Amino acid sequence: MSNIVIVDDALFMRKMLNDILSKLGHTIVGEGATAKEAISLYERSKPDLMTIDVVMPEEDGINTLKAVKTIKSQNQNTFIIIVSAMGQEEIKVELLQAGADDFITKPFQENQIIEVVNNLLK
Description:
By secondary structure, this protein is an alpha/beta fold. Helices cover about 45% and strands about 25% of the residues. It has one domain: Rossmann fold (3-Layer(aba) Sandwich), CATH 3.40.50.2300. The chain has a five-stranded parallel beta sheet, sandwiched between helices. The chain starts with a strand and ends with a helix.
């Protein structure tokens, strides 16, 4: 299966995503709560897939996505899923244009995560 990094400032959200993705047989190679941790985890683990929250301390998900995409362009085919709270759908187009592979709105259902991840990693 695939190696995945989860980035969200909410511990419960990281745990929920970890549980869903682990049940599918994926390996969670890292979890982070900030943009800085996201970039460090990406550089260290070169995951197959990464989830990034939009609203985080220090940097937002858009700048985090752009930073990861800059590094990614050098050597990696990592899929990036943005996970965002309701009310932030208006930035969905901006995030997809910035290089996100998909966008999931919180609160989400487990089957939404499964469908998006399976579609990207097939």
